[in-house]
Amino acid sequence: MTIPLKLPPAKGVFINNTWQPAQAGKTVAMLAPATGQVFTSIAAGDAADIDRAVKAARHALEEGAWGRLTATERGRLLTKLSRLIEDHADELTLLEATDTGKPMKQARADAVALARYFEFYGGAADKVHGDTIPFLDGYLVSTLYEPLGVVGIIIPWNYPGQIFGRTAAAALAMGNACVIKPAEEACLVVLRVAELAAEAGFPEGALNIVPGLGEEAGAALSAHPGLDFLTFTGSPEVGVLVQTAAARNHIGCTLELGGKSPQIVFADADLDAAVTTVAAAIIQNAGQTCSAGSRVLIERPIWDRFLADLKLRFEKLTAGTPEMDLDLGPVISAGQKARIEKMLARAEAAGASIFARGKVAKDAPSEGFYVAPALYTQVDPKSELAQDEVFGPVLAAMPFDDEADAIRLANSTQFGLVAGVWSKDGSRALRVARKVRVGQMFVNGYGAGGGIELPFGGMKKSGHGREKGFEALYEFAAMKTLVVKHG
Ligand code: NAD
After folding, report:
1. Over the stretch 34-89, which tens digit does the pLDDT of each residue have?
2. Which residue of the set 184, 216, 256, 467 is catalytic?
């Protein structure tokens, strides 16, 4: 398979199942991270396009066919879309690999996960039941789960397909109509799946996509008074803007933000298994994963041995193009690469030292945005490298003395997304798991983000609300209490 380095311009904004030019006629050039070259362009939608999309979604719910479908019918549509995504997995893999630069195997895994989101929520759509509640004599009380209405969804560039799947599939399964603002750096898979949704038979206006710049299309979507709910995945800084906009319109909002996720390795752990997983958890998607395992906390007696093993792994890690299909690809942009390099220079000035470094493949294009993986020691737990998200293939190693020290260090950042603990002492592993303040905790394993079935989300600066699993359906539902006095 050859990565298409040139594609025709994307077709515009997707509203009411048709491509329409963005009203202002503006576009955004798309760079392939692997080569640094422009390979296509997308429409730059703005406030006028967002307004049309929100109105189309409202119409679909209140007057169109979408609002009249039963939960079972919605589920069938989602399942059909899942099959179409599977049928187009090769094409979607190529698009995602070109757009984000990730290795083909990762892009394929993302296409498979995207199909699985629609399969999972297709099956779940008609299985969301309310309760009956004992109340006063002569009353029947029940709870109903209804759609929230028009949902605005803002997604980032790191996993365009997967994050589209986990948000849109759950929102649609619950009967909401969606307006999606994908990221300007990478979103071609999202645009293609919109066409597949129309092919699957989704009625007009159920799923609308307005690509464009964050400060234009994203800000316009967040502030639109026609929304009933917002969900945002991205940086903590923009998360504050989105939540503020949601508050002004008195609507709810889910925030899926960053992380500084720790893996805690006790001396009695299966060290071979731990070392493999610790390296994989920071390398996946070149470290550009909100749930990347970016800190490793190592019990002092095994500090030298574990680091020596990690060093061997790191020195073999190689970044290359999607087609080379190596351990990692480039990062998303020149700006992101420069940001990582500046952060590492500051870390070194603050006393951190590189303990091991991977490499960039010799024949990777020099204009691509490659960063060699790096393992740091001598990291002050209060320093920027220990506290802040690098969003690159950079692992910070720190020692700890005992269980209490490990828990204190794990909880010492502003984030709380995912963590892992490695120990053969089951009681200790569970004690630690209960005390680390995160939304998802792994024992003797780590699955950056986990599976489709597993509720996922943050605490503290990592955000709030839950996506994935059955739990996401409740986030996208309004509960109504129905009280009937029958005497
Ligand atoms: P970002 O916040 O810059 O962009 C995310 C999205 O928000 C994009 O679609 C962008 O166009 C839009 N946006 C930008 N400015 C906006 C504004 N003023 N108003 C409304 N929308 C705006 O984030 P990024 O750099 O693209 O993504 C990286 C961040 O996302 C990291 O911090 C990462 O941890 C986080 N992330 C979190 C999760 C999670 O599930 N917790 C998943 C993936 C990424």
Report:
1. 999 999 999 999 999 999 999 999 999 999 999 999 999 999 999 999 999 999 99
2. 256
Q: Are residues 109 and 138 in the same domain?
A: yes
* Cα gap 315→297, rounded to integer Å: 20
Q: How many Å from the N-terminal Cα to the C-terminal Cα in the chain?
A: 70
The domain spanning residue 137 has which CATH number? 3.40.605.10
Is 431 inside a domain boundary? yes
Atom of ligand 1 nearest to the CA of 258: 34
Q: For the range 38-42, what are the long-range contacts, defined as Cβ-Cβ under 8 Å and sequence gap of 24 or more?
A: 39/4, 39/5, 39/6, 39/7, 39/98, 40/6, 40/7, 40/8, 40/9, 40/10, 40/188, 41/9, 41/10, 42/9, 42/10, 42/184, 42/187, 42/188, 42/191, 42/211, 42/212
Query: What share of residues in the chain are helix, strand, coil (percent, to 5)?
Result: 40, 25, 35
Provide the pLDDT for residue 103. 98
| Ligand 1, residues at Cβ distance < 6 Å | 154-158, 181, 183-184, 214-215, 218-219, 222, 233-235, 238, 241-242, 256-259, 290, 389, 391, 417, 458, 463
Q: What is the pLDDT of residues 438-472, one digit of tens each?
A: 999 999 999 866 699 999 999 999 999 999 999 99
Query: Given pLDDT bands bounded at 50, 70 and 90, which one contains residue 1?
Result: very low
Count of domains observed in the chain: 2
Q: pTM surpassing 0.85? A: yes
**Residue at 7 is within a domain:** no
- Bridge partners, residue 398, by sequence: 297
Amino acid at 223: A
Q: Say which residues have a Cβ less than 8 Å from residue 51's Cβ, sequence separation at least 6.
A: 220, 224, 226
Q: Which domain holds residue 134?
A: 13-257+466-481
Could you tell me the strand order of the sheet in which 177-181 lies? Answer: 18-20, 13-15, 207-209, 177-181, 150-154, 229-233, 252-256, 463-464
Residue 84 DSSP SS3: helix
Q: Could you tell me if 413 and 477 lie in one domain?
A: no
**Does the structure show a pLDDT above 70 at 369?**
yes
